[in-house]
Each structure stands twice: as structure tokens, then as C-alpha cells.
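stage 2 :: seqdesign
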């Protein structure tokens, strides 16, 4: 849907609509496209003097009008606003960038305010004060006088209405100074006021250089009341101006609530040469954030709405997301991240463009992976499916594992003490109880790295876990292809690949933003530790589940094939040592060696003890043990061959864990709390949010 900017921008002073006529003009820009929509005339000092004189005259007649008559006119204003809602909303969206559905809501709320104040004026009750007997004191409320109102761009129609309707209902005349960024919608509002019957000298509409207009109006003896919504800095300035005349002033000033964002927060923002914009300027009831109408910027809002994830680019009079087909009506959560992009990113976001590294922007995650609500509630868990829930489940599983080990160790001692008999708790007990716990821990390690704080939606988990899950499936297929058998071992390989993909994803995101520093720090180093644990778990599953063992009797020169290995018996070697005789058996494994397992015969104790020989590779360990040796140079030998895969990876995994621990304790770069933890491109430090000028 394409809408046109159909209005002529004018000032309304002393009953007439005035065009440029030699006045300076201010360009009105569509924030979604950067296109200039029109130019609004800027009031001169003479215009302001004329508006002040008209307002002084209008106050005399308006205050004398019966409150019922004033109320009827304000109700008429509300009716006209409702009739013209669509036209006003389109102007609001084109000028300010707010989605059209939000603009319609703002205009409708403005109509409701006029109805409210039309009736509220009838309830401006006075007071009777307690006095000594025979005396009576009565307080009567009367209009204060001509007022000057200054309103911002974020809710231009609603906030102008809030001040205008209240002042008119009380019997005051008004000089309204809305923002120059949104003159079309505010002029349309003023036309409703005038068309409804408000006298021409009672309501005035001016635009101009903010500092000049505020100094001129507030410095005039005519103005008796000032109402302002905007930044704290500008509010302080207006209060100083009002102080000279001891004038009544009402301020609604912006503030910035503190938000602590630590290194482990799940906030990834795509901001090429961009800035973070404060999201605190909003109505108290509905948290809606919009952007200033600066032609150099476009608005990108990262949104989680229920189970759906959107990336909205506010575009003129439409609500359509450029990264999805859904029409978007969004109630933004508090502290929602707002990204403002420089022009170089604009074309990439308009569809068909390319982003960093000339990569197509096909996926929302390439632009943003935000945690939309930074508030962390201490002492509570919003959902088990969250990072807090993962920590809790992890601790429970480790406590259960410790209990199983303790039970297997202590139980035989208890039985011996109570029943005076000995029992042994062997491998079957530990396998039966610890294997399910290990599987649960691997599952948790697969999901936990991508969990946000507080609560995760199904859509979020699907988006973040889709590729790690496919890696897990690939690991299972690979394990079966290379000979893995049994449900538990194959499952362990699958979960190991799943967990490795999940941890690798987090490391990749961190390094893409921070370079080598993406490996250091508590969170990033912890992911490396995760990889070490996964390596150990998969190696343990392979080494314990795929052990192959056989015995062979060989004569010199004879070979045997077993578990993919070729064994060749080359002969014997006897060595006499001080306390023993060592009979070595020389065997080559796949052409390497020879390896020399032996039998050690101790003369004084008449004992024979075997010494195995092990060949270790990245694939497996081949252990050789001598069972029997027949005397003679050409005597045969009986050996036991044990093949255990991935044994060396237990040591490698331990090394990776140790390395990750060092990375976790290594001090990372101290950064601004609002800096993104990771993103495709580097980001400048956030600029100080600017306030709204009158």
C-alpha cells in the first residue's frame, strides 16, 4: 500500500492559515525513505507577537463562555477527529515513521481525550475552607490565562491533544508549538479544533526555531502558563526562562532507567556504523518506541511477539515487515533494543540487498539475535526453559551423579558394618545409574548455550537450534557408518554433535564481533570448556561401548587380522635381569613397531606377571597382552588383542577443558554495558541519546 502526503503546511495565527510568504522553511522528511515530503513555514518574531495579541483577546471571550458551551465544542472536536482519523493517521505515519495501525490508535486516543476533558471541565470543583465562627472562605478555580504548549515528535497528535484539550476545557487560550518534524498531522488536529467552533483567536498554531520560539513566548507577559513534554535538558532551560516571570509550568521530562548488561547477555545487534538509541521515551501505558525523522537514519526494531519473531522496518504508511509476510502490530516490551542504521545499510534492508561481507540478508539472525527484556528478577525463575532453569537442572543432575557415586562407595561399608558380610558394587550398578544421568547432561549441554535469560519461546529455540540439531543427526549417521552399534552409544554421539554445534555457534557469534577476544571471558571460555566435556563424553562412549577383544596363537612369521588391524608375530626375545626373567614377544601392528608385550618371571616368588604393550593413535588404542609362551626359537605364542577406539581423545578433551578454563579466567576487554556482545560488524560506542526539543 502506498499513501501520498496530501496536505499544505501552514501556520494558524489570529484566525488565518499562513503559508511561507518569505518565511524560512523546514524540510519535512519521511524517516523510512529519506524523501522530503514538504516544507513547513517557520514563524517570525512578528508572527509570534501577533499570536500573543490574539491569544490575549481570545482568553477574555473564551473564559467567559459557559462551561457547557465549551464542552459541546470540545465534543465536536472529538467527532471531527474520528471522522478524519485515517487521513490524520497517514500523515502521522509518513512524517514520524510509526506503523499505520499505531498511528490510527494514537489518533483515536486523541479523540477520546477531547471527550474526556469536555466533561472534566464541568467537575472543576472549588473548596470551602474551615474558618472561625462567623467567617467563610471559598476557593474558586478559574482559568490561569493564555498558555504556551511545547510537544515532541514521538506522540505528536496525542501529546498535543493532551495539552490543548485540557487548556481549552479550563477556559484558557492556547499557543501550540508542535515539533517541526510532524507538522502535517498536528496541523490536521488544529483544523479539527477550529472547524468545531473554537474561536479563531483562542487557538494558535506556530512552528519555528525552538529556542527562538520558546524565549519569545515565555518571555512575554501575556503567557501565564507553560506546559512541556520532552528532554530533561530542554526542560531545565524552559524552567529558567519561566522563573523570570514566576510563571506556572508543567513538565513531563524524559529519563533513563539504569540497565545492567553483562558479557553473558544474549544481545547481538547488526549496526554498521550505527548507534544505539534509548528506548525509554514512551507513554507509560504502552511501550512504543519510534525514531526521529532524520534523513540519515532508518528504523529497525528487533521484536519478540508471543511465539513469533519479526524484524520490522517502518516504511511509510505500511506495517509490512521486509523480512516476513506478516502485518505487524507490535506492543514493544520495556527496554527493547532499537537500532538506527546509517545510509549504507538502507539498501541492504530494502530487499535484495547484501550485508556484511557481501552476504545476502536472508535470515533475521544475520541482523539480530536480541534479548528483548533486560530485566532480571532475582530469586525467581520465569520458566524452566531459560538460562536460569538450565543452571538449576545442571546442579540437580550433578548432585544426583554425586549421590550415585557416594551410594556405590558407601553402601558396601554399611552392609559390612550391619550384617558382617562383604559385598561389591561393580560396573553394572554404575552403568545402569550414571549412563542416564550422562545422557541428560549431554542433552542439557545441547540446549543451554543458546537459552536466553528468563524465558525462551519455541520459535527462538527452533531458530537457534536448527543447525546444531542437524550436526547431531550427522554425527549419529557417521557413528553408524563407521561401525557404531547400540542405542546408547549412537545417541551419545548424536547428542555430542548437537552440543558441539550449539557451543560452536556461540563461539562463532562471539568471534565474529570481537575477533580473538571472542574466545576469552567467562561466557566464551565456558563454551570452550563445553567442547572439552563433549570430546570426553564421546570418547568415553566410544571406548567403553566398542571395545573389541580376541586371542590368537601365532608362530613366528604368522599374521592375524582383527578389527581392521594386521598383526605379525616376529619372534621372541629373552632378557635376564637381576630379579626376573623377561620374555618379550615382538609383534608389528599395521607395519609399525615392533611392539613388545612380555611375561616377567620372578625367581624368588615363583610368580609370572604380564606387561602389556599399547599402540595409541587418534583412531584407537591397540593393547597387546601375552597369555602363554612356548619355549624354543620357533615356539608359538598366545596373545590377547584389545582394541579401544578414541582413548587418546579422553586426554585431548581434558586438555581442551583446561585451555577453556584459562580462557574463562583471562580478563576480557571492559566495555560499555550497552555495547553488543557479538555482531557481524564492529559497532561504534553508543552515542548519548538526544532529548526532544520544543
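stage 2 :: out
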Amino acid at each position: 500500500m502506498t499513501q501520498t502526503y496530501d496536505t499544505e503546511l501552514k501556520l494558524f495565527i489570529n484566525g488565518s492559515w499562513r503559508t511561507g510568504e518569505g518565511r524560512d522553511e523546514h524540510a519535512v522528511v519521511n524517516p523510512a525513505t529519506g524523501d522530503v515530503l514538504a516544507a513547513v513555514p517557520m514563524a517570525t518574531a512578528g508572527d509570534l507577537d501577533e499570536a500573543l495579541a490574539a491569544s490575549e483577546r481570545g482568553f477574555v471571550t473564551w473564559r467567559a463562555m459557559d462551561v457547557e458551551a465549551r464542552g459541546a465544542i470540545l465534543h465536536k472536536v472529538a467527532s471531527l477527529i474520528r471522522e478524519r482519523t485515517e487521513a490524520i493517521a497517514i500523515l502521522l505515519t509518513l512524517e514520524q515513521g510509526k506503523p499505520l495501525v499505531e498511528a490510527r490508535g494514537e489518533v483515536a486516543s486523541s479523540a477520546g481525550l477531547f471527550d474526556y476533558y469536555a466533561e472534566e471541565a464541568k467537575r472543576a470543583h472549588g473548596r470551602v475552607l474551615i474558618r472561625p465562627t462567623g467567617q467563610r472562605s471559598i476557593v474558586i478555580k478559574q482559568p490561569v490565562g493564555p498558555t504556551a504548549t511545547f510537544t515532541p515528535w514521538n506522540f505528536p497528535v496525542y501529546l498535543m491533544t493532551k495539552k490543548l484539550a485540557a487548556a481549552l476545557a479550563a477556559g484558557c487560550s492556547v499557543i501550540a508549538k508542535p515539533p517541526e518534524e510532524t507538522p502535517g498531522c498536528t496541523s490536521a488536529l488544529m483544523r479539527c479544533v477550529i472547524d468545531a467552533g473554537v474561536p479563531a483567536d483562542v487557538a494558535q498554531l506556530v512552528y519555528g526555531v525552538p529556542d527562538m520560539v520558546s524565549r519569545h513566548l515565555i518571555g512575554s507577559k501575556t503567557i501565564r502558563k507553560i506546559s512541556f513534554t520532552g528532554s530533561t535538558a530542554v526542560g531545565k532551560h524552559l524552567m529558567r526562562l519561566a522563573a523570570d516571570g514566576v510563571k506556572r509550568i508543567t513538565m513531563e521530562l524524559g529519563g533513563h532507567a539504569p540497565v545492567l548488561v553483562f558479557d553473558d547477555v544474549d544481545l547481538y545487534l547488526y549496526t554498521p556504523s550505527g548507534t544505539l538509541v534509548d528506548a525509554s521515551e514512551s507513554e507509560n501505558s504502552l511501550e512504543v518506541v519510534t525514531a526521529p525523522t532524520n534523513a540519515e537514519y532508518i528504523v529497525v526494531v528487533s521484536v519478540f511477539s508471543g511465539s513469533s519473531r519479526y524484524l520490522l522496518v517502518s516504511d511509510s504508511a505500511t506495517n509490512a515487515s521486509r523480512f516476513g509476510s506478516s502485518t505487524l502490530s507490535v506492543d514493544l516490551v520495556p527496554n527493547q533494543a532499537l537500532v538506527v542504521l546509517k545510509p549504507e545499510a538502507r539498501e541492504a534492508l530494502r530487499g535484495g540487498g547484501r550485508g556484511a561481507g557481501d552476504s545476502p540478508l536472508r535470515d533475521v539472525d544475520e541482523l539480530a539475535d536480541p534479548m528483548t527484556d533486560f530485566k532480571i528478577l532475582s530469586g525467581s525463575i520465569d520458566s524452566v526453559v531459560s538460562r536460569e532453569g538450565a543452571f538449576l537442572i545442571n546442579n540437580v543432575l550433578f548432585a544426583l551423579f554425586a549421590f550415585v557415586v557416594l551410594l556405590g562407595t558407601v553402601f558396601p561399608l554399611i552392609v559390612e558394618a550391619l550384617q558382617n558380610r562383604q559385598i561389591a558394587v561393580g560396573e553394572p550398578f554404575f552403568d545402569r545409574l550414571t549412563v542416564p544421568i550422562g545422557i541428560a547432561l549431554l542433552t542439557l549441554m545441547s540446549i543451554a548455550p543458546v537459552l536466553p535469560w528468563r524465558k525462551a519461546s519455541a520459535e527462538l529455540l527452533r531458530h537457534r537450534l536448527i543447525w546444531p540439531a542437524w550436526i547431531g543427526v550427522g554425527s549419529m549417521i557417521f557413528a553408524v557408518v563407521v561401525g557404531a552399534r547400540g542405542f546408547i552409544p549412537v545417541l551419545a554421539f548424536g547428542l555430542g554433535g548437537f552440543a558441539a554445534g550449539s557451543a560452536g555457534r556461540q563461539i562463532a557469534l562471539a568471534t565474529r564481533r570481537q575477533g580473538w577476544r571472542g574466545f576469552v571471558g567467562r561466557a566464551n571460555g565456558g563454551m570452550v570448556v563445553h567442547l572439552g566435556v563433549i570430546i570426553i563424553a564421546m570418547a568415553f562412549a566410544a571406548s567403553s561401548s566398542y571395545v573389541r577383544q580376541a586371542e590368537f596363537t601365532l608362530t613366528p612369521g604368522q599374521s592375524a587380522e582383527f578389527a581392521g588391524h594386521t598383526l605379525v608375530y616376529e619372534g621372541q626375545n629373552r632378557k635376564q635381569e637381576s630379579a626376573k626373567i623377561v620374555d618379550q614377544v615382538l609383534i608389528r601392528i599395521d607395519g609399525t613397531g615392533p611392539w613388545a608385550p612380555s611375561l616377567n618371571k620372578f625367581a624368588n616368588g615363583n610368580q609370572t606377571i604380564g606387561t602389556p604393550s599399547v599402540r595409541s593413535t587418534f583412531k584407537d588404542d591397540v593393547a597387546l597382552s601375552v597369555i602363554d609362551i612356548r619355549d624354543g626359537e620357533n615356539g608359538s605364542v598366545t596373545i590377547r588383542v584389545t582394541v579401544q577406539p578414541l582413548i587418546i581423545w579422553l586426554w585431548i578433551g581434558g586438555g581442551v577443558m583446561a585451555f577453556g578454563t584459562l580462557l574463562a579466567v583471562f580478563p576480557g576487554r571492559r566495555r560499555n554495558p550497552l555495547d553488543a556482545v557479538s555482531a557481524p560488524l564492529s559497532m561504534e560506542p553508543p552515542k548519548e541519546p538526544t532529548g526532544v526539543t520544543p
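stage 3 :: structure notes
- The first helix runs from residue 45 to 64.
- The CA atoms of residues 49 and 535 lie 80 Å apart.
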